[in-house]
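Write out the 3D structure for:
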Amino acid sequence: MSSSPDPTPIGSLDDLAARLERERLDADRRYNHALSAFDDAVRAAAPTLSPEQAHVQQRLIELLQTVTAFVETKDRALGGSELRDEIVRGRARMLELQRSVAALSTGPTAGTAPGVAPTTGHASGNVTGATYLGFEDQFRGSRDDIRARQADYVAVFAGASDVLDVGCGRGELLDLLRAAGITSRGVDINPAMVAACRERGLDAHTADAVTYLDRMPDGSLGGLIALQVVEHLEPPLLVQFLETAFLKMRPGAPLVLETINAACWMAFFETYIRDLTHARPLHPDTLKFLVTASGFSHADIRFRAPVETTDRLPHVAGATEPAQAALVEAINAHADRLNARLFSAMDYAVIARR
């Protein structure tokens, strides 16, 4: 596995750009030197070549001459991964500063629910603001990626109204619900996330989930969804959240809780522990039990985002001799067992009814 460069220190964007330019010029110099040497070698050998060989070598030179232009256009399109990451972090810091200044001059953060003070609401700390928004942008995926992953949840709420999206983040699901004609609102502890939602005309509020739910009338919600949220809650708060949600939802209203599949080794080590705001991994059986213990019915576990075949342990090809065939069968059986435990599905959702 290749190692990525060390993160660029804050405030060193000029240094990063200068280093990338030095590396580009050095690579360009070495490439041109090698191309010139190759061209000289071809010219020296030209008298001994047949017409067909000379034609092929001329085409090869033309191909090599196009490489520099091709790579440079790709660089312009990509912008360099290090430079893009630093720009994302810089934009996040700028956005956070702008909103902090605005909050000082106007009072409470825009989007805060009436009478609800922004709090952490869970024991995983108070890593909020544009810094975490930038983390989401870099590691969780683009808005289009997240919309594609969440699109199939819309059907669960067909015919529903007054749906609450807990931990609405950047508002991808709120966008999808609005497009489907399903009335919904979002709540998130991160004011930068809420501001990003409200800038697109979405109904979103800054508050922790339990505080927000406590202030709602009983039986007022036609559905509740929390995607990648419950792993941020310590067990006592998670139980309180589920019991409060049960009181605030209408009979028959759907509940959807999606989280990282901690029973999958790859999901735990590549996704769960990356986010420092995660409080507790939840085994699928554990979350399903907590949901039903809180009064919900028809609870079902749906595994999502299966691990790619290329990341799973492959089977060994079959053998013709009996002794070898038995060994191959044993190896493949072990691979299947390991795949089922280590490389199964990255996420799962518990879907239930009030």
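Residues 240 and 297 are 17 Å apart (CA to CA).
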